[in-house]
Amino acid sequence: MKYLKNLPFGPLLAASLFTTLVSCGGDSGQENSPGIPPVNDNSDEGLVYNGPVAENDDVQQFKLNVWDNLAGDDRCGGCHNEIEGQEPFFLRRDDINLAYETILPLVDKTAPVLSRIVQRAEEDHNVWSPAAADIIQNYVEAWATATVSASQNTIVLTEPDILRTVGDTKQLPASPDLYESTIYALVTNTETANCVECHSESSPARQQPYFASAVPSTAYAAARTLIDLNNASSSRFVRRMTEGHNVWADPTAAATPTAYSVQEMTAAVISFIDQIEDSEPFPEALPISTAQYISDGVVANSGGRIETDVIALYEFKEGSGSTAFDTSGVDPALDLNLTPTVAWVGSWGIRIEDNGKAFGDTASSKKLHDRIKETGEYSVEAWVIPANVVQEQARIVTYTGGRDVRNFGLNQNLYDYDWMTRSENSDANGEPMLSTPSADEVLQATLQHVVATYDPIEGRRLYVNGELISEDGNGDMAGSINDWNSTFALVVGNEIDNASWWEGTVRLLAIHNRVLTEEHVLANFDAGVGQKYFLLFNVSEHVDMPKAYVVFQVEVFDDYSYLFSSPFFISLDRDAVPTGNIPIKGLRIGINGKESPVSQAFASIDEVVSAANYDAATGVPLTMDASDTVTASGTLIGVQNGQIDDLFFLTFEQIGNASYTRPVESTPSPADPIDLEQQPEIGVRLFDEVFETMSAITTVPSARVSELYNNELRRSLPSAETAYGFLSSQQSAVTQLALAYCTELVGDSTLAGAYFGSYGALNSASEREAVIGPLLDHMLVNSGLETQPDPAAMRAELNGLIDNMTTNQTSTKVIAVCTAALASATMLMQ
Ligand code: HEC
Ligand code: HEC
After folding, report:
1. For position 314, what pLDDT does the model report?
2. How far, in Å, is the centroid of ligand 1 from the Cα of 318?
3. How many whole angstroms from 209 Cα to the centroid of ligand 2?
4. Residue 747 — very low, low, confident or very high, per pLDDT cuts 50/70/90?
5. Cβ of 199 below 6 Å from ligand 2
6. Mutation test of ligand 2: which of 220, 243, 246, 261 has the most ligand atoms closer than 8 Å to its C-beta?
């Protein structure tokens, strides 16, 4: 899990953040009343502070956000005060100003995760809850958000401990073939390992992960994270054997079953690793940076979220186990139980698979009833990734008593979000509901930020990606919530009786007992979700400046991709100044010993760093347009070996004195090339490219959809926004375009016949392959893709999509599969 928490920190150098990194949560709407000692309402003890008033606003914010929450006898305050006498007295009760002075060295407001008090809790030092570290981190974040202004919002960049070389890292092959002939052969062997007895969706036990699935591509997709390419013995496959998990007997009885199974499994994993082909060496002249794992990165500021009135919060950082902790710090904790088919995702989140759900018990769910009734208003906020746009009446999150009765419910219905709220003017199910307009297709199968609010005067609002999409517009549906039921349960991803499964990923869920204003919604959208890192790529070898780095902001975007954004050049030697011009041109991102074959949005970078534009604190941004304005830019890079094992580096066409001229054929180009390099906006360039690439993949002439494209979709692209806005709105347009192409393809019997042949009713594996196979083949050929997206994972996913479709119309199914394949994020970001 939190393998990044204990980053070693050396001498520090501050570099203030710029562009989209600056949080806009400075004026958070926090009640700000220095001098009036508020009563601690989160502790059962009801600890009241009677000492001298806070000397300044920062002290007061410390008190409101940290002291009030931790000073009680049932928390850290049970020991760390002057009465109990346990040093340090960071929660002393006699003088808040002295407590403040004591706590300052124990907190890091720019990176709360690195605070000493968070780390002690992480080590389970006298914690009151297994989630204490996350809860304390949230308190420190709230304090930082309340007092750190955007200009002070600095991040500390430190030199990496190790300057890693690119080396020849192996990468998992795209095709399942090698897995099939090695590890898969063993785990499906019913005479020996026989893992297939449980680890297959078609076995009665149906135990995830399905690495022994009857469909090898599905099996391989599940197996990828269980293999450690650098060390066979630390692979989960082998470690489980060491733990004695369902080991089998040595036929010669020479070794114990555990020792024998470890030996056999290790041999299978080594055989798999040894047969992976090494990547090709780089050309001698190509300038290359040092390499970094995500875990080498500097933790970026994660503050900026407005959580003043949060009463239940799920950040899903745990990464394993059957509980998702409520880290709001508001008692009682409303922890969620996960059914066995709920999977953790590495980027913080849970994926609801196979009719699973996450649910609170009714006793702790009552907190929602009690706290919301106090105010009569509330907001439900979530970062979600719907798995598809074909599910109907699927419950994303609901406070429910059964399929026809609830206090509130946020649903997906195809392309719409639906918001059900029980009040004196609704029925017991919270209907009629408020929906996003179907024609707008606001809901997309990509990462989205959704906020649904209710207040007794104005009624309801629905926001998606920071934008107000729907509202009641009158008070008809507003009113009191007096008839709310206190015996209901909070359920995520399903109905309490499993009748309305929602397939998708939740990366954050927050319930507030106030309405989030439009401003707050936007602030929380801008704050993003998940941990962000700065990866520092050393380039001193190529430039005449010490400790020179090209730095990227990187975050894990979803299970399949990393988001790289906002590169800049900086020297970590504060006194260094560029002595001449440092040209930086044609930057490409490499992963596991190879340049990523797609997603090279920064290949068009052409900047010059010089004494004139260099700022020792912030460096020089590398994505400036002709008028030297920094443009928002992000690109998705596919996950290959997994978050822990993927090793990144950069290559350049020119940096400082080093340069390399690329042979023309090595640049992947779209099938029907139009001259794209010249266009300034990365977003637009991507999109034109996508437009042509989709035509090539589907064989549908682009003229057939050009009207839709030119009149609607192209214009809907923002030119400069945050990376999230950029990607989400782009993804929405991409999906609509894919849908148009696929409808044309499937509807045209000549084109479809040539493309798919015949595919029957998609009941058998071969009928499905008749649809999925040609789609994947065309994509691979036409996108210049070598290793991504992973066809095995895509195949498994598309099969799952067919499984879950409720429609009987085969053509509708084929269009849906085609659209999902064509619009998948990693596929289209070139
Ligand atoms: C039962 C009493 C008790 C409680 C409750 C308690 N501590 Fe401590 N704490 C100690 C003792 C004893 C020490 C000194 C020995 C040590 O460092 O473990 C200490 C030391 C510390 C230190 C200073 C040493 C260092 O490592 O920097 C910090 C910080 C700290 N505790 C944080 C916390 C936090 C955060 C909580 C709440 C999760 C907490 N403590 C709850 C007893 C307690
Ligand atoms: C009798 C049923 C059964 C059989 C047979 C079985 N497993 Fe499991 N496996 C489980 C269950 C239950 C879990 C989830 C609970 C747990 O982690 O122990 C699991 C979880 C796992 C996990 C995921 C959790 C983790 O720690 O990474 C792996 C990997 C795994 N098993 C490997 C194997 C291998 C390899 C075999 C064949 C040698 C095997 N299992 C055979 C029941 C089984």
Report:
1. 97
2. 23
3. 8
4. confident
5. yes
6. 246
- CA of residue 134 to ligand 2 center, whole Å: 29
The amino acid at residue 44 is D
Q: 189 CB under 6 A from ligand 2?
A: no
Q: Residue 34 Cα, ligand 1 centroid: separation in angstroms?
A: 28
For tokens 């900047």, name the residue: 607
Contacts of 703 (CB under 8 A, 6+ apart): none
Task: Indicate whether residue 116 lines ligand 1 (CB < 6 A).
Answer: yes
User: Does position 7 have pLDDT exceeding 80, yes or no?
Assistant: no
Nearest to residue 455, comparing CAs of 477, 427, 485, 426?
477
Q: How confident is the model at residue 730 (pLDDT cuts 50, 70, 90)?
A: low
How many residues make up the chain in this entry?
830
Q: How far apart are CA 814 and CA 794, in angstroms?
A: 15
- Give the per-residue pLDDT at 24: 26
Nearest residue to 230 (alpha-carbon basis) of 264, 270, 187: 270
Nearest CA to ligand 1 atom 32: 117
- The first and second tokens of residue 339, run together, are 């059914």
Q: Is the pLDDT of residue 307 over 50?
A: yes
Q: Which of 207, 280, 299, 296 is nearest to 643 (CA)?
A: 296
- Cβ of 205 closer than 6 Å to ligand 2, yes or no, is yes
pLDDT value of residue 26: 31
Written as one letter, the residue type at 819 is T
Contact 249, 260 (CB under 8 A): yes
* Least confident among 31-45, 416-430, 701-715: 31-45
Q: Which ligand is nearest to the CA of 74?
A: 1
What distance in angstroms lies between residue 639's CA and the mean position of ligand 2's atoms?
Answer: 24
User: Can you tell me the distance from the alpha carbon of 821 to that of 739, in angstroms, rounded to the nearest whole number?
Assistant: 10
User: Rounded CA gap, 243 and 394, in Å?
Assistant: 39
Q: How far apart are CA 564 and CA 556, in angstroms?
A: 9
pLDDT score for 35: 34
- Segment among 7-16, 368-377, 637-646 with least mean pLDDT: 7-16
User: From ligand 2's centre to the CA of 245, what distance in Å?
Assistant: 6
Q: What is the pLDDT of residue 762?
A: 84
**Confidence at residue 120, expressed as pLDDT on a 0 to 100 scale:** 95
- As a whole number of angstroms, the distance between CA 143 and CA 154 comes to 15
Q: Cβ(121) to ligand 1 under 6 A?
A: yes
Ligand 2 nearest atom to the CA of residue 193, by list position? 38
Atom of ligand 2 nearest to the CA of 194: 37
Ligand 1 proximity of 125 Cβ (cutoff 6 Å): yes
Residue with tokens 């992963």: 591
User: Is residue 539 within 8 Å of residue 655, measured between CB atoms?
Assistant: yes
- CA separation (Å) from 676 to 564, 680, 695, 708, 734? 21, 9, 16, 21, 18
pLDDT at 673: 28
Q: Is the distance from CB of 312 to CB of 325 less than 8 angstroms?
A: no
Q: How far apart are CA 243 and CA 250, in angstroms?
A: 17
Whether 210 and 222 have beta carbons less than 8 Å apart is answered as yes
76 Cα to the center of ligand 1, angstroms: 7
Q: Which of 56-65, 390-399, 676-685, 686-695 has the lowest mean pLDDT?
A: 676-685
Cα 36–Cα 146–Cα 92 angle in degrees, nearest 5: 55
Ligand 1, atom 43: closest residue by C-alpha: 79
Q: What is the pLDDT of residues 372-423, one digit of tens each?
A: 999 999 999 999 988 888 899 999 999 999 999 999 999 999 989 999 999 9
